[in-house]
């Protein structure tokens, strides 16, 4: 491909395709989501790993207690969406940096997209279809507020 | 004396620059590695959490694996990665948006490291005690 180099004094014209500048919005998104994620993830880790007995206390009943409160449902849902899209977009940057063959790049980018979409759908469904007291489960595994207890 | 395989006097390594081999480069390397690590953890984490929709016993079986000492060390490393990525992320945002950001990027890197140490001192001992007091129970 022949490239013509403009004369140094040629008037500067910025050629920009009309329409949404997605790279710019991606850049803004990484920063805006990062600030919010800091609060959401630190909160998540503080409650799940630091308070009380930390990791020792986590079991089905623990999740049942948290997800019967819409506050934590929304918290986790926002964290899921923001983190998956932030991480996926970051991975896209990295693939663009290192994958030199066009086909490898396409396959990796498609893989990231599929993984991010699938996990967001799955995670969102899990949060909002969750039943803290599933019928027929051993009572000692369920939260204390379940009717069987 | 020729000091490289080509037999010329060209130095083996380029001389230092403002970026190469300094805070700017290492913070970028660490930010990248930690970002990838957290991403892969999150992929697994959403799947293990999804076990709550399978059965209470199935979820407990998976989450119990998080309580053994080796995983406990892994979780400590994960939190270390997140805390660095989060604080350094704020540093990146400040470099981009704060008028003095670029000027203070080096100082801010060491502030990030300092905050990281303080946060990990608050987290790691407590978490490791939780994990290791579980051993043998
Ligand atoms: C805790 C709060 C977080 C903050 C403040 C934060 C901040 C940032 C910032 C500012 C960038 C640079 C974007 C750019 O250069 O345009 C970035 C990149 C990235 N982040 Fe995060 N992030 C956070 C959490 C996460 C999480 C949870 C993940 C994974 C799921 C993640 C994965 C990545 C990846 C893979 C990159 C790309 C790195 C690169 O291009 O070298 N981050 N983050
Ligand atoms: C070892 C550290 C971690 C433990 C023990 C842990 C534990 C848990 C638990 C028990 C839940 C169930 C709901 C709840 O408690 O809110 C959950 C959900 C979740 N966690 Fe974590 N977490 C950890 C680290 C992280 C990190 C670093 C991230 C973000 C990058 C994260 C993101 C999420 C998300 C998005 C959900 C919702 C999943 C879904 O929609 O199905 N977690 N986690």
UniProtKB/TrEMBL annotation, chain A:
The chain crosses the membrane at residues 28-51, 71-95, 107-130. Pfam families: Sdh_cyt (PF01127). InterPro entries: SQR/QFR_C/D (IPR034804), SuccDH_FuR_B_TM-su (IPR000701). It is found in: Membrane. This is Succinate dehydrogenase subunit D. GO terms for cellular component: membrane. One of its GO terms (molecular function) is metal ion binding. Its main location: membrane. Keywords: Heme, Iron, Membrane, Metal-binding, Transmembrane, Transmembrane helix. It comes from the Bacteria.
From TrEMBL, chain B:
Signal peptide: none annotated. One of its GO terms (molecular function) is electron transfer activity. The keyword Signal does not apply. It is found in: Membrane. GO terms for biological process: tricarboxylic acid cycle. The chain crosses the membrane at residues 29-47, 76-95, 107-124. This is Succinate dehydrogenase subunit C. It comes from Herbiconiux ginsengi.
